[in-house]
Design brief:
It is an enzyme of class 2 (transferase). Cell wall formation. Adds enolpyruvyl to UDP-N-acetylglucosamine. The modification 2-(S-cysteinyl)pyruvic acid O-phosphothioketal is found at residue 118. The protein has 2 domains: 3-19 and 232-417, Enolpyruvate transferase domain (UDP-n-acetylglucosamine1-carboxyvinyl-transferase, Chain); 22-229, Enolpyruvate transferase domain (UDP-n-acetylglucosamine1-carboxyvinyl-transferase, Chain), CATH 3.65.10.10. It has 14 helices and 26 strands. It has helices spanning 22-31, 49-61, 88-92, 98-107, 126-134, 165-175, 191-202, 234-246, 262-271, 305-316, 335-340, 371-383, 394-397, 403-409, and strands spanning 3-7, 13-17, 35-37, 39-43, 64-69, 72-76, 84-85, 109-113, 138-142, 145-149, 157-159, 181-185, 206-208, 214-218, 223-224, 227-229, 250-254, 274-277, 281-285, 294-296, 320-325, 345-349, 352-357, 365-367, 387-391, 413-417. The strands form 7 sheets. A 4-stranded mixed sheet has the order 24-25-1-26. A 4-stranded mixed sheet has the order 2-17-19-18, with helices on one face. Strands 5-6-4-16 form a 4-stranded mixed sheet, covered by helices on one side. Helix 4 (98-107) packs parallel to helix 6 (165-175) and helix 5 (126-134) packs parallel to helix 6. The longest helix is centred in the first third of the chain and has 13 residues, at 49-61.
Length: 418
């Protein structure tokens, strides 16, 4: 097993390139199945374990997947040989449920193992199933797998009971080849939802309204391959913004969309950090003391749930009282026990973390309990006195490409060891 070793105390300085969005890529790759002719050539793909996992699943279905450049994949789904996606890789990751919508749309049937992913709370797919059934599909869950089939898919009006990124994207994918019009209401508005819609439209779909509360889809008869570039990663960018502030550094993030980062920028400004926005860049630096803030996670454009754990690490090292209310996932404070090993003063009451900031955390042996908790441990280690050892870093590798190389280039003392 590998671990990250960090000696804290160095202010991060320099520039860092942000990769393509993990949350967009893990939906776009399964959606490439919809192309019955031609290749999908997808650029700005992050080099992360979740993407490698999806590559293996695509190949198991009969797709021809080639890495043409370091961050470019070519996917030819013309001759898919099976609609049965039941491998260890499927069980391992949450985003494998997008294969349900993609296979259903193109072949009108699928069998997909129930997905796994980070243990951050109950994540049912009831809204997905409700939507598939509204389009005319029959769904059976047996032996740990979703079996779905339909004689044909017909457009419908679907109102989501809760705002769900996964259900929004999955139904958008499924409805692209349904007969007639589909209207999705109370949908997620995240940047990666818009990016998936743009990708589908590049293949020939007719989708309007992504980024608003209502998405309208007019079904088409077929989709074809296309060239596409994935949107920059809002969450990776937020993580580096927080790390810059935590170490009282001066970091410029390149290849970002500043508007996607507004909720994070607002909280860092409230804390006393300085932020300068360019067309495709954001500079974060600290010139003075930072103070605690209160945060409540919310669907986009609110503060992202995926950034609250790194933010918790920052607030633990800032003098003053802060509070984080997690409204999306009920079990997303597991990182708190690890931060306490580094002398963080945090009390969890239900979904609320109450933080009494210390000026200095202390290095310790900790573990990444999930993907974003792992990023929080890295940020804590960068600020802490002494050495921090982070285990279970396979979680981190699922979403952050070459994280130690990027931080080392900014001046961090960080290395990976067996």
């Amino acid at each position: 097993m590998e671990k990250l070793i960090i000696r804290g105390g160095n202010a991060l300085k320099g520039a860092v390139d942000i990769n393509g969005a993990k949350n967009a890529a893990v939906a776009i790759l399964p959606a490439a199945i919809l192309a019955s002719s031609g290749k999908c050539v997808i650029d700005n793909i992050p080099d992360i374990e979740d993407v490698h996992c999806l590559e293996r699943i695509l190949k198991s279905l009969g797709c021809v997947v080639e890495k043409t450049e370091s961050n470019t994949l070519s996917i030819d789904a013309t001759n898919i040989i099976t609609v049965d996606a039941c491998t260890d890789d499927v069980r391992r990751m949450r985003a494998s449920y997008y294969f349900i919508g993609a296979l259903l749309a193109r072949f009108k049937e699928a069998r997909v193992e129930l997905p796994g992913g980070c243990p951050i709370g109950v994540r049912p797919i009831d809204q997905h199933i409700k939507g598939f059934e509204a389009l005319g599909a029959k769904v059976v869950i047996e032996h740990g797998a979703v079996k779905i089939f339909a004689e044909k898919l017909v457009g419908a009006n679907i109102f989501f009971d809760v705002v769900s990124v996964g259900a929004t994207i999955n139904l958008m994918i499924a409805a692209t080849l349904a007969e007639g019009k589909t209207v999705l209401e109370n949908v997620a508005r995240e940047p990666h939802v818009v990016d998936v819609a743009n990708f589908l439209n590049s293949m020939g779909a007719n989708i309007k309204g992504a980024g608003t509360d209502i998405i309208r889809i007019k079904g088409v008869k077929e989709l074809k391959g296309c060239n596409y570039s994935v949107v920059p990663d809002q969450i990776e960018a937020g993580t580096f913004m927080i790390a810059a502030a935590a170490t009282k550094g001066d970091v410029t993030l390149q290849n970002v969309i500043p508007k996607h980062l507004e909720s994070i920028s607002a909280k860092l400004l409230e804390m006393g950090a300085c932020i300068e926005e360019g067309d495709e860049s954001v500079r974060v630096y600290v010139d003075g003391d930072l103070k605690g803030v209160n945060i409540k996670t919310a669907p986009y454009p609110g503060f992202p749930t995926d950034v609250q754990q790194p933010m918790c690490a920052l607030l633990s090292s800032v003098i003053g009282k802060s509070m984080i209310v997690e409204t999306i996932w009920e079990n997303r404070h597991k990182h708190v026990d690890e931060l306490k090993k580094m002398k963080a003063d945090i009390k969890v009451e239900g979904r609320t973390a109450i933080i009494e900031g210390n000026e200095k955390l202390v290095g310790a042996a900790v573990k990444a309990t999930d993907l974003r908790a792992g990023a929080a441990m890295v940020i804590a280690g960068l600020t802490a006195e002494g050495i921090t050892e982070i285990s279970n870093i396979e979680h981190i590798d699922r979403g952050y490409p070459h994280i130690e190389d990027k931080f080392r280039a900014l001046g961090a003392d960080i290395r990976r060891e067996e």
